[in-house]
Every structure is written in C-alpha cells, then in structure tokens.
C-alpha cells in the first residue's frame, strides 16, 4: 500500500481527469439503477391497468435513461484512460531517468531483465489498475449500494435474502483477491526470467549458432516459458473460479426470491413487478460486487508492480554528486591515486589494493597486467563510474568527488573495452561525444582514429546508418568509431581500455602518433595486453591481482618487474614463432 501511495503524486497533474471520469460514471450508474424501477412500474401500473400510453411513456423514459447512461459511460472511459495513460507515461519517464543514472552496481543488483519487466509489464499493470479504479471502482460499489437501498425501499419483504447472500459474496471476494496478489507476484518473477533469457539470447545469436547450441537454448527457453505459463495459469484459474461461485450464490438468491415472492404474491402482500425488479437488482448487485472484485484483484496485482517500480525510483544511486561541488572549472588532467582500494562485492574482497600513482598533465600512462588483475576497474574510478572504498582519486589535486559529475565527465574521453555504438547515423554517434560538432570536427576525429578511410567508403559517409549494436560494421571499425567519438571531445583525460585489440599494428601506431601531435596536453591512459601498445608510454603501471606490482618506463620495467618481464618474454616468443 505504501508503494502505491508513493505513486499518488503522479496522478496530481491529471486530477481533473481523475475527478471527471468517476463523476460521469455516477451518471451511468444512476441510469442503470433507474431501469428496473421503471420496468417494475411498467408491469405493476401500466400493464396491470392496461394503460398503454403510460407504458409507452415509461418505455421512452427507459430509452432516454439508457442513452444518458451511455454518454456518461463513454465520457468516463475517455477521462479515466487519459488520467491513467498520462500517469503511467510520467512514471515510465522517471524510471528511465533514474535507470540512466544507475551505477553499474545498481543495474547489476536489479538485473536487466527485471528492469525491462518493470518498465513494460509493471507499468501496464498499474495503468490498468488505475483505469479500472477510476471507472469500475466507482461503478461497482455505487451499483451495489444503490441496489441494496432500492431493494430496502421497494422490496423490503425480500431483503433478508440479501442479508445472507451479501456476506457470502464478500468473503469470496476477499479470499480470492488476497490469493491472486501472491500468485501474480510469482507471475512477475517468472516474466523477469523470460525477459532476461530473451535479452541474453538475442544478443548472443551468432555465438549460439557458431556453437550449434540452438536446441540447448530452445530447451532453456522452454523451461523459462513453461514456468511462466504455469504461474499464469494458476493465477488466472484462481481468478476465473470466482465468477461461477458468485453466480451460484446469486442464483440461489434468485430462487429464494421467487419462492418467497410467490408466497407473498399469493398472500396479496406483494406485486409481481417487485419480484422482477428484485431479481434485476440482485443481478446488478452481483455485477457491482463482481466488478469491484475485479478491480480489487487488479489492484492486488498492481501492488507488487507498484512496489517494484517504487524500488527503482527510490534506489540510492551509488555514485552521488556532492551538495556543493567546486565551481565549474577547466580540468587540466593531472590524476593521482592515493592508497586506493576497491571492492565490487563490498565484502572486503578487494579488486584494487593500495593503488598509488600520479599521472601528470600530458603524460601517457600504460596499464598492463594479467587478465582480471584490475586494469579496467582502475580506470573506471577516474570518471567515477565507481568510487573507491578506501583512499582517494585526485584530479588536478582535488578529490574527484568534489567536482560536479558533469564537470568531471565532460573532461574525460572514455573508449570502453567493448565498443558500444547506437543505432543511427555515424554522425549521430560521433555527436554523442560532442553535441553539435561540425563535420570538420568529425572528420578530424575520424582521421585521428584512422576511421575516415572506412567511413568515406561507406554509402552516405558520415550519414551512413548503423544497425542496432553496429552489427553492420566490423569489430575493428567499431573500435575506431568509438575512439573517434572520444577524440572529438578533445578531452583533458583520455582513457583507452584495450580499445585497439581489433586494430592492426600500423593503424594503432598512427593513432598513437596522432594523439601525440594533436593532444599534447591530454593525459592518456592506455590499457593493453600488448607490450607494443604501452611501450612508448611515459609510465607503465603493472598490475597483478589488484596490486601495483611495479611502475616505470618500458626499459625500467624490463629490469625491475617480474610480471612485465614474463609478459614481454611470452610475447617475444610468440612473435618469434610467428616469424619462423
Ligand atoms: N561488475 C563487476 N562485478 C563484480 N566483479 C567484477 C565486475 N567487473 C569486474 N569484476 C571482477 O574484478 C576483477 C578485475 O576485473 P577487471 O575487469 O578490472 O580486470 P582486467 O584486468 O581489466 O581484466 P581483462 O584484462 O580481462 O579485461 C576480476 O576478478 C573480475 O571478475
């Protein structure tokens, strides 16, 4: 309930729709309730006294009330859906904004599949619950209460039947609503799993084919899908059982009404029309209760959804901006790590241990070390994708946390290990690095990244469209383009995380030369597994098991660092065998 309440502010801008919708519904309900009374009068007064003009008059009144009810119902649907659709659109927008600010750790905690289910299914569930609440939740109780009052006033002799039927109906509804809430929560969890599996499979189709694992994946998907089917069936069946059970109670009520009614008619204390009206009102009442119970169930179903949505909206973003950052300043690019320790799991298992080094403005820092030694993690601390658990990262002599995140990140160009490009034109992808960059700037960056040669050959050049995941480019082309996207920012700090792994040695040398010439004052971090990529760096950090094993120039490390010597020897041996 609490999570549902927390979402209430989202309805505020649409209060008018949320008020007009139910008000119009009241008109429809009033007209619905009028009908059996009119019918009773037609039978007991018009037909019984053979007064044709009275019958026609009331018949026309019935038609008119039906038409007014129709208008009320249609208007109510329009306003209720407007309120609910805008309400969910705003929540979806805020969810997206929040997720966009998530740290990698935040995303890992939820899982991408669950996040997708939240933005799609869960939002749909609360939207549906709101529409139903605004329409049916007014209609149901009003029809119910209206019928009870009218039966009390017009057919009091039959009222005891309601006293027995109503509590039974209410117990059924309470029990089923409660049960369905728990069952739909299981449906959502199963849906998360389907989405996660789907996402994983879609991004790995070439791999699945290459390994011939289609059948295995089919089997895996079947398991996940079957589990969803089972949970859905269980939940739906529980809900569907309610209707016949309620019908049974109402039918028994009708039989009782006919039985007692017939006795009273024989005694001359009741008119036939009253029995008919009673049966009608009993049906209306059941419809009222039934639709209220549907809404209750929809709301019950929306509870877990609201909770999950609320959970995302309330998630504490791991990387926080300090309240009073230093005034916006141009960062020149001096980077210092002082006794930095970092752990992903936060259980004391450090991935980086006591890392200390300084990179002066304009220096090139190579980072090398065995796989999993912490190279990528180290550079991710510079733009504050993660914060150290102990120690401090200083940029231009001050703690990186004291900068406004935008100030800090705008000064950094980051080329990630896995080139990530967006669907859209090459131009749009480059402008992702620098908004409104000119074609000349794009060409310059393209040349630096040795990307222009392939871009110029593409149809449309910089306007050439990339498919999702840039699958219409080769791995090397993707890497060049993501480098150009970082270069176009003319950053003070440039991070190249193994970004030349799919690029030939000659092109890599060209990139490094261009960096020297065009970005002499940029501090460059180059992570690579190849000695040749870091050899020329001013300083090379050698990482081993999260620790800084050694630091120095290529020549110094060949003498001082055991790890560096091993890497060097193994690469030389490989080269020699290749040349044989
Ligand atoms: N998001 C994450 N959550 C938990 N652990 C992680 C995460 N990313 C990396 N790790 C762990 O941190 C350690 C260091 O990983 P990192 O990616 O920094 O190594 P690396 O030296 O860059 O490796 P490689 O050369 O293979 O890219 C590894 O043991 C890895 O399993």
Automatic annotation (TrEMBL):
Mind telling me which InterPro entries this protein's record contains? AAA+_ATPase, ABC1_TM_dom, ABC1_TM_sf, ABC_transporter-like_ATP-bd, ABC_transporter-like_CS, P-loop_NTPase, Type_1_exporter
What UniProt keywords apply to this chain's record, in alphabetical order? ATP-binding, Cell membrane, Membrane, Nucleotide-binding, Transmembrane, Transmembrane helix, Transport
One GO cellular component term noted in the UniProt record for this chain: plasma membrane
Q: Name one GO molecular function term.
A: ATP binding
Respond yes or no to whether keyword Membrane is given for this record. yes
Q: Indicate the segments forming the ABC transmembrane type-1 domain, all copies.
A: 19-301
Indicate the transmembrane segments per the record.
14-34, 54-74, 136-153, 159-176, 242-262, 268-289
The protein, known as: ABC transporter ATP-binding protein/permease
**Provenance organism:** Perspicuibacillus lycopersici
């Amino acid at each position: 309930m609490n999570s549902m309440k927390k979402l209430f502010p989202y309805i505020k801008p649409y209060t008018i729709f949320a008020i007009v919708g139910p008000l119009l519904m009241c008109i429809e309900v009033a007209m619905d309730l009028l009908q059996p009374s009119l019918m009773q009068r037609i039978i007991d007064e018009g037909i019984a006294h053979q007064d044709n003009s009275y019958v026609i008059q009331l018949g026309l009144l019935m038609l008119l009330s039906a038409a007014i009810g129709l208008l009320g119902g249609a208007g109510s649907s329009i306003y209720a859906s407007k309120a609910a659709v805008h309400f969910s659109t705003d929540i979806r927008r805020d969810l997206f904004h929040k997720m966009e600010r998530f740290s990698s750790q935040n995303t890992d905690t939820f899982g991408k599949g669950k996040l997708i289910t939240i933005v799609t299914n869960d939002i749909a569930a609360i939207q549906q619950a709101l529409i139903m609440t605004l329409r049916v939740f007014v209609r149901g109780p009003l029809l119910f209460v209206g019928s009870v009052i009218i039966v009390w006033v017009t057919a009091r002799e039959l009222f005891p039947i309601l006293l027995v039927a109503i509590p039974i109906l209410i117990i059924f509804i309470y029990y089923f609503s409660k049960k369905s809430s728990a069952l739909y929560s299981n449906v959502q969890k199963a849906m998360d799993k389907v989405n996660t599996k789907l996402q994983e499979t879609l991004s790995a189709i070439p791999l699945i084919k290459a390994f011939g694992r289609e059948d295995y994946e089919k089997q895996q998907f079947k398991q996940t899908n079957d589990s969803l089917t089972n949970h859905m069936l269980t939940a739906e069946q529980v809900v569907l059982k309610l209707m016949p059970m309620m019908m049974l109670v109402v039918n028994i009520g009708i039989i009782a009404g006919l039985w007692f009614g017939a006795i009273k008619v024989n005694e001359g204390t009741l008119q036939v029309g009253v029995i008919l009206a009673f049966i009608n009102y009993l049906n209306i009442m059941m419809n009222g209760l039934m639709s209220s119970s549907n809404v209750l169930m929809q709301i019950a179903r929306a509870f877990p959804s609201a909770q999950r949505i609320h959970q995302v909206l309330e998630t504490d973003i791991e990387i926080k901006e300090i309240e009073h950052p230093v005034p916006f300043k141009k960062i020149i690019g001096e980077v210092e790590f002082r006794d930095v320790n970092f752990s992903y799991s936060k259980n004391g298992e450090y991935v980086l241990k006591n890392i200390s080094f300084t990179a002066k403005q304009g220096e090139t820092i190579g980072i090398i070390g065995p796989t999993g030694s912490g190279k990528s993690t180290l550079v991710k601390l510079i733009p504050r994708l993660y914060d150290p658990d102990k120690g401090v990262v200083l940029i231009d002599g001050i703690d990186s946390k004291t900068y406004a995140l935008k100030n800090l990140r705008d000064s950094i160009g980051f080329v990630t290990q896995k080139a990530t490009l967006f669907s859209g034109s090459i131009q749009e992808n480059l402008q992702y690095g620098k908004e409104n960059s000119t074609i000349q700037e794009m060409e310059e960056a393209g040349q630096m990244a040795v990307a222009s040669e392939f871009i110029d050959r593409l149809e449309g050049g910089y306007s050439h469209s990339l498919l999702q995941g840039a699958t219409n480019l080769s791995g090397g082309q993707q890497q060049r383009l993501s480098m150009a996207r970082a270069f176009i920012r003319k950053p003070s700090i440039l991070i190249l995380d193994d970004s030349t792994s799919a690029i030939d040695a000659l092109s890599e040398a060209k990139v490094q030369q261009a960096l020297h010439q065009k970005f002499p004052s940029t501090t460059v971090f180059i992570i690579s597994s190849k000695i040749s990529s870091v050899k020329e760096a001013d300083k090379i950090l050698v990482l081993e098991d999260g620790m800084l094993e050694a630091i120095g120039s290529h020549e110094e490390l060949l003498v001082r660092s055991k790890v560096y010597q091993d890497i060097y020897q193994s690469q030389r041996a490989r080269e020699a065998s290749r040349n044989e």
